[in-house]
Amino acid sequence: MQSADELFDVCDADDQVVGQATRGDIHAQSMLHRAVHIWVQNSAGELILHLRSTTKDQYPSCYTSSASGHLDAGESYLEAAHRELREELSLSGNLEFLTKLPASPETAFEHTVLYRLVTDAVPTPCPQEIAGIEYLSIKAISHRLREQPKLFTPPFRKLWQWFETIIDC
After folding, report:
1. Please, are residues 128 and 53 in contact by the beta-carbon 8 Å criterion?
2. Which end of the chain is less crowded, N or C, counting CB atoms within 10 A of the terminal residue's CB?
3. Among candidates 117, 122, 75, 115, which has minimal Cα distance to 98?
4. Of all residues in the chain, what percent carry a pLDDT higher than 90?
5. For the chain, how many helices (H) and strands (E)?
6. Nearest residue to 82 via CA among 2, 74, 90
7. DSSP letter (8 states) at residue 71
8. Coarse DSSP helix, strand, coil percentages of the chain, rounded to the nearest 5 percent
9. Which among 141, 144, 151, 153 has a CA at the least distance from the CA of 112?
10. What are phi and psi of 41, to 5 degrees?
11. Residue 1 pLDDT > 60
12. Handedness of CA 42, 167, 58, 37 (dihedral sign)
């Protein structure tokens, strides 16, 4: 669960830790920090999109990755990915690394690592984090993004932009 007092690592442009600060300070001052995103796909290739809760401090009521979140101070990307997947969807499994994007305004100043989990396990969304989930095809997500990009978080849009360079949508 989010709290303005959570402690995160502050990073430089090369993703080297240079200090620590609270969530509130990091977001208020646009400091570079770390986040993970996990795309959960079923065996039919549909991806879970999640609608962020209205109580989120950034991008409330926007669509984003199946699960995502900040790294706690001292936590690795992979540890955070497993934690976020458990906390947000009550899922676990073998995570596949897909890409890493550098921190920028388009990623909400987050060095962002994307993982994928392929599973047919039934997720249980955390109601404090997630207002709802949808399974959508890659084409349906691409169409929705083209038609209404502002419905999606900037980090998700940036990750999808990368994704579309490696597939044929």
Report:
1. yes
2. N
3. 115
4. 89
5. 4, 9
6. 90
7. P
8. 25, 35, 40
9. 153
10. -120, 145
11. no
12. positive
Q: Could you give the dihedral angle defined by the CA atoms of residues 116, 126, 123 and 119, in that order, rounded to the nearest 10 degrees? A: 10
The β-bridge partners of 100 are 113
Specify the pLDDT at position 71: 97
Residue 137 has pLDDT above 90, yes or no: yes
Q: Name, in order, each residue with C-beta under 8 angstroms of 35's C-beta and a sequence gap of 6 or more.
A: 68, 69, 70, 71, 80, 107, 108, 110, 111, 112, 113, 155
Render 114-152 in DSSP notation, one character per residue. Answer: EEEEE--PPP---TTTEEEEEEE-HHHHHHHHHH-GGGB
Phi, psi of 37 (to 5 degrees): -130, 140
Residue 169's pLDDT band, with cuts at 50, 70 and 90, is: very low
Tell me the one-letter amino acid at 27.
Answer: H
**Is 83 within 8 Å of 38 (Cβ atoms)?**
no
Taking CA atoms, 11 is separated from 17, 33, 88, in Å, by 4, 5, 25
